[in-house]
Amino acid sequence: MTETNPAALPEVATELTAIAQREPQTLAQQIALSEIPAPSFAEGPRAQEFARLLAAAGVHDIEIDASHNVIGRLGPADTKLLLTGHLDTVFDQDTDVHVTTDEAGVLHGAGICDDARGLAAVLSAAKSLAALEDGLETGILIGANVLEEGKGNLGGITGLLDTLAGRFEAFITVDGANPERIVTIGPACHSFLVTFTGPGGHAYGDAGRVSAVHAAGRATVAVADLEVAAVPKTIVNVGAIRGGVTETSIAYQCTVEIDMRSDEQPVLDDLVARVRQAIEAAVAVENDRADTSAGEITYEIATTCDIPGGTLPEDAELGRAALAGYGAVGLEPYLGAAATTDANVPLSRGIPALCVGGGGAAGNNHSTNEYFDPTDSHLGPQGILLTALSFAGYRAETV
Ligand SMILES: [Zn+2]
């Protein structure tokens, strides 16, 4: 990390001005990309257009992999930072993705912020990084990845961690708008659908038999009684119980849905193991105390969600670079926001990562009423530029 504030260097100041001046072009690219449908698993056409724009920005060695991740390089072959936005949206192929601009200049369209803004901000920052490329002390891998949204299960960044292993030591994802809220906590998530099954029977005629509802109830109480850490924030929630037939039937089936989350992966792993033990013990109690002559209670656990996560250490160089970079353009950035983003996966593996907004303001993300307010949106790519220069290292041109 360079000691001098890169923003103070004349050639960097020139690029900060250039980013502000080309913001109308950046917004035009944001609209164009947003109008190319890109459901998770169908990002190909948007990836092609993004790759074309990335090349036009001056990024070289661009490759599109089999999943449609687009990655190029700036600066030395010895790369240290990976910087991407995500290509996919939550919308299906048939959603109207036409973008309109209202009288106040606010853009309206499905996906116009999430993550068309991130993609456009990466492109604008890339153009300035390309102009400053000769001064980069380490290389930057820059582009866009697939499969960030729900159904994709963070598969894009997970694939890149394998294919680019050893080629970067920190990751920045540009997702959403707000450039002051820096996400450094990626809660790890794990969900269970537990199905309890037994012989069932008549409440009076078959009195004493094991019950799927009783077993599910015992398991629910046992899970609710588990101790969980306040720091790192950790939760367990039995969110739904469904089962049984009626009050005169001994229940033959009951399902329970359990959500578990923690800001630290090992803490979540421990909780998941304890929840499994609690369920097993609850079923054992039901089978011990009730009549199993017609059959025992059995159970099956299906994992319905498994997202790794972690937290960026407070003193991490990457976090300090982002605070300095966004602070230098006049924003008041802060670390410590929590959200599930592409940063989750590297954080879960101990690789420094964070998520920043691409500038401007937005709302109604993941709905067809999504909007993007471009007021001062140039501050997003400016912050990305300074953060990347600071982290990669920048040596002023010697005159
Ligand atoms: Zn997003």
Mean pLDDT: 95
Categorize the overall geometry: elongated
- Cofactors, ions and other ligands in the entry: zinc ion
- β-strand percent reads 25-35%
Tell me the number of helical segments per DSSP (H or I, 4 or more residues long).
Answer: 10
Overall SS class: alpha+beta
The name CATH uses for the topology of the largest domain is: Aminopeptidase
> By CATH's scheme, which homologous superfamily of the largest domain applies?
Zn peptidases
**Biggest sheet, open or closed, and with what strands and sense?**
6 strands, mixed
Number of strands: 19
CATH class of the largest domain: Alpha Beta
Rg, Å, rounded: 25 Å
Low-confidence stretches: none
Q: Approximately how much helix is present in the residues?
A: 25-40%
Q: How many domains make up the coordinates?
A: 2
Q: How far is the N terminus from the C terminus?
A: 22 Å
Order of helices and strands: HHHEEEEEHEHEEEEHEEEHEEHEHEEEH
Spatial ordering of strands, largest sheet: 1-2-6-3-7-17
Q: Based on the structure given, which CATH architecture of the largest domain is correct?
A: 3-Layer(aba) Sandwich
